[in-house]
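Design request, tokens follow.
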């Protein structure tokens, strides 16, 4: 077992529970403002201090876990679903379809990712959902290419040829033999991509393209705190730590899964 895996896995589990059930961690309303308690430092009353509107930072970070993680998870989920479908189609539906789909993916990759995300958000409007869709578009080619490569590698395996010999249809062979065995590397890519998408989602929120106020979201909290850095460090520090810890835990878990799959192939 890789060193650091279990601590990272525990952190991920806590973040998942926090995102789904924030009330288990705090009973404070993250949107309640107290103008008499603005920019208070960490204390017994406010464990992580307060922001420029007197809102409790601990409550906002806890409640911000859901929107912050959901942008990245939504992007990865959409890219995974679309990429797997495209990858299987490119590998199984003949050379002409492979060429069409591969060139289409090349077109997506030829456009700068940030510009493509901004274009999607400009069409759909700012918010967590549009941000996830935009990030999914730029992530989809990677999932499609990995899936395509795995399907091509597996379709020549002996058990696949045996299934064809038993009279199974192409769809049955793909669903029962090829796809389940091809998903390992794809899921590793999903885990690694999730960390990058969380950072990208926070970046979009930082520039105002993610969840809109007063929704608590880590990237938006960083943006709101930047003009107060000279007099209060905590409104920026703690959301930044939350993003860093989440991405680091995901990276450790993803690296562990990748090593396990590589060992399984040798």
């Amino acid at each position: 077992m890789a060193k650091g895996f279990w601590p990272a896995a525990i952190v991920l589990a806590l973040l998942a529970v926090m995102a789904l059930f924030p009330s288990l961690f705090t009973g404070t309303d993250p949107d309640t403002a107290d103008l008499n308690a603005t920019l208070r430092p960490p204390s017994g009353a406010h464990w992580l201090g307060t922001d420029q509107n007197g809102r409790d930072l601990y409550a906002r970070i806890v409640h911000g876990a859901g929107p912050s993680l959901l942008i990245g998870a939504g992007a990865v989920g959409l890219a995974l679903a679309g990429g797997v479908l495209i990858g299987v189609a490119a590998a199984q539906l003949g050379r002409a379809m492979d060429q069409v789909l591969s060139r289409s993916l090349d077109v997506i990759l030829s456009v700068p990712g940030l510009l493509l995300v901004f274009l999607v958000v400009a069409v759909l409007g700012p918010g967590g959902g549009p941000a996830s869709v935009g990030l999914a578009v730029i992530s989809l080619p990677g999932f499609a290419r990995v899936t395509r490569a795995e399907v091509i590698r597996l379709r020549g395996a002996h058990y696949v040829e045996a299934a064809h010999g038993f009279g199974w249809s192409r769809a049955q062979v793909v669903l029962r033999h090829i796809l389940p065995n091809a998903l390992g590397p794809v899921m590793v890519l999903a885990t690694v991509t999730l960390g990058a998408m969380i950072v990208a989602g926070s970046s979009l929120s930082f520039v105002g393209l993610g969840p809109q106020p007063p929704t608590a979201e880590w990237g938006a909290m960083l943006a709101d705190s930047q003009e107060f850095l000279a007099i209060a460090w905590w409104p920026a520090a703690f959301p930044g730590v939350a993003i860093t810890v989440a991405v680091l835990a995901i990276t450790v878990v993803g690296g562990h899964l990748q090593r396990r799959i590589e060992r399984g192939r040798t």
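Comment from the thread starter after seeing the answer: thanks! The first helix runs from residue 5 to 20.
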